[in-house]
Specification:
This protein has 251 residues and is an alpha/beta fold. It has a single domain, classed as 3-Layer(aba) Sandwich (Aminopeptidase), CATH 3.40.630. The chain is built from nine helices and six strands. α2 packs antiparallel against α3, α2 packs antiparallel against α9 and α3 runs parallel beside α9. The protein binds zinc ion. Zinc ion binds next to loops.
Amino acid sequence: MEALKIKKILACCGVFAVLSAFVWAGDAVGRKAQARIAEAASAPVTEMPQVALDAGHGGMDGGCVSVNGTAEKGINLDIALTERELLNIMGFEVTMTREDDRSIYDKGVTGLAAQKQSDMKNRLAIFDKCGGIALSIHQNQFTDSRYSGAQMFYSRRNSGGERLAGALQKQFVSLIQPENQRETKPVDDELFLLDKTDTPAVMIECGFLSNPEEAALLETAEYRSQVAFTVMTGVMEYMSGYAPSERETGG
Ligand SMILES: [Zn+2]
């Protein structure tokens, strides 16, 4: 069983080149992505656990809104759907909290507050049931439009989550945001899902919808694919225990 899984992942190495070429169309970043992913994929992988994938918000809850009026919930969902495809190709088993524009509260629950509570409880159940890792996809917003860049949040209670956040943050810097100097951030009970689950979990704030340039990027399908690809490389790094040197230069 285990050997089969490893075989499947190794067989997927060739798929990396195809995927990254699809996402990056062969520019310098694309070549770097290919090299990175080939290294990560050839590192010994001992297990391929499940991934719980949460597209933040949905339905009545739009999340934050970009400077152009685009709701966060749709951007989150699009990235999450692409993420599922990429992770599926790599042999991961993915469970999503939602696959379309909806809130997942229990039938019969009425009132916005109760529906939100039920929705979060159901997302938590999906995180808890997952034997592997959990990712929650979100977009950030701030009053000062200058702020940009992805940032990973994890629970102080979970060392796996911290390591996963580190892998993801590093891949964002390495592949698509070389200027990003943000550090991963521990949270306590201000983020319900991260605080309550025992599954190693990370909230991925992909970028700031309050920043005009970043919002414009996140509103393109191409950039959203690149974000999804970047997240996949972070997951691969975490899973394989692959630890490249801190910051690579050139190439
Ligand atoms: Zn959000």
